[in-house]
């Protein structure tokens, strides 16, 4: 179990989350590129989690993913920073946008999904899992996290 702290970009929303880190991956789909205003988005999945908002509150909207799933997205209503996702078909996991964490030095994704949309100038690490689109299931991503070196995990 880990305890992680983070906040939105403007600082009006702070959170603490405890749980078991299940996996960390980068998503290169166009939706994640738009949402992050960058080359990719990242997802840190926690199981057995407890989320506490220490300051502020979130707003929420639901979106349809490129793979046809529905994701509930929570964000800061002041600055718009996306903080948490909850896929309706995997409610046992809370997905944190890990760039919002206070400590990001340990973040090393074990997989890259939606590689077919990845920016051509971005080299992807050869020692991680790669998927052209969305994986059929996330079992291999969960297993890869368990096998990652200790310095890659909180």
TrEMBL record:
Keywords: Lyase, Metal-binding, Zinc. InterPro entries: CENP-V/GFA, Mss4-like_sf. It holds the Pfam family GFA. The keyword Lyase applies. The keyword Zinc applies. Belongs to the Gfa family. This is GFA family protein.
């Amino acid at each position: 179990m880990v305890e992680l702290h983070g906040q939105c970009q403007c600082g009006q929303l702070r959170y603490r989350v405890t749980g078991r880190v299940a996996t960390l991956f980068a998503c290169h789909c166009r939706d994640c590129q738009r949402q992050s205003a960058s080359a990719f988005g990242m997802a840190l999945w926690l199981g057995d989690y407890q989320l506490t908002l220490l300051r502020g509150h979130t707003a929420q909207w639901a979106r349809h993913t490129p793979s046809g799933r529905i994701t509930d997205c929570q964000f800061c209503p002041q600055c718009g920073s996306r903080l948490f996702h909850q896929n309706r078909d995997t409610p046992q996991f809370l997905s944190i946008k890990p760039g919002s964490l206070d400590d990001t030095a340990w973040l090393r994704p074990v997989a890259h999904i939606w590689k077919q949309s990845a920016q051509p100038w971005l080299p992807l690490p050869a020692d991680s899992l790669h998927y052209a689109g969305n994986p059929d299931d996330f079992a291999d991503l969960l297993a890869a996290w368990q096998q990652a070196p200790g310095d890659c995990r909180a």
